[in-house]
Amino acid sequence: MGIHNAGSRKSHTKEELRFEGFLRGKKLKLTGERMAILNAVFLRNSHFDAEALHASLRDKGGDISRATVYRTLDLLVQCGLVRKNSLGSSHANYEAARDNEHHDHLICLNCNKVIEFYRPDLETLQDEICKQKAFKPMHHSLQIFGLCNECKDKADESKIRNRVAQLHT
């Protein structure tokens, strides 16, 4: 089986230790399945949905139920180890919340491609605006919806306009 026993490793990552403490605080069990899901999330370098994560775990020999994947992702979001967002789609997308890593998103409304970017000058501008307004920022998310280079000349504009009207951000 592709899932390791949660107690079989000698050293734990900071994410594993944080999750373990979070679960203990909620009086929940630290299971091999939960740790396998946590580790699978932090092996990914891009956004994913719960179904893709479940399929990936099954492909690696894990016998983890779809419900366990969804419940564990919710716990990881509550713990602050995973970010959940819609990225303009009708279902949730997730990504590992890595320390000191912030980025924003360009989202293609035709092919659903997500392009991550980081601009320090944009971060500085946001900080300046918060300072001017005496506002203490805790989190922000910038999502720009449009058409990627591959789709900008071939997308059906009326379908795209309808999709823009239905965005849930």
**CATH architecture call of the largest domain:** Orthogonal Bundle
| Tally of structural domains | 2
Question: Mean of the pLDDT scores?
Answer: 84
Overall 3D form: globular
Specify Rg, calculated over alpha carbons: 19 Å
- For this structure, the CATH topology of the largest domain is Arc Repressor Mutant, subunit A
* Strand order across the largest sheet: 4-3-5
Sheet of most strands: 3 strands, mixed
Number of DSSP strand runs: 5
Which superfamily, in CATH terms, is the homologous superfamily of the largest domain?
Winged helix-like DNA-binding domain superfamily/Winged helix DNA-binding domain
CATH class of the largest domain: Mainly Alpha
Proportion of strand residues: 5-15%
Distance between the termini: 39 Å
Query: What level of helicity do the residues show?
Result: 40-55%
How many separate helices? Answer: 6
Low-pLDDT runs of 5+ residues are 1-10
Output the helix-strand order.
HHHHEEEEHEH
**Structural class label:** alpha+beta
